[in-house]
Amino acid sequence: MFMAMLEIKTMTVHPSEEDSAINTMMSFGWDLKNNQEVYNKNTRMQDDFWSNDINVITETKHYIKLTFQRDPLRAHYAELVELEHKYQSVHPQNEPGALKKAMFWPLKPPGHKARLEEVKQQKEAIINQARRLL
Fold first, then answer.
1. How many CB atoms lie under 10 A from the CB of residue 119?
2. Rounded to two decimals, what is the model's pTM?
3. Average pLDDT, stretch 51-67?
4. C-alpha dihedral over 71, 75, 76, 78, to 10 degrees?
């Protein structure tokens, strides 16, 4: 019997964004296959060159790894893929870019708040359009 190859996608998200990410992906026909919480705490000692002190440095990584699958033979597959690409291409004018990546940027560009609301509405409209296909 012929078995269809499933499309697989893995992503990492902050724990507070897990539910939102799952709901968004499911809107485009993805099924959650696996979710794994990753929490690593690494502590090391490092010499301070200037003071001859020993500093204890702790680094923590905490995220959720999500794995999704989607059947390319499902109904409306091409439309769902197109809408997913459209969703991913909608972003505020300062993303991705220097303003978002800056460590400190006290001033927001003019119209920043309105643009964020516009982007949110565009993304919601795309998700609603995709959900009608499911």
1. 15
2. 0.75
3. 90
4. 40
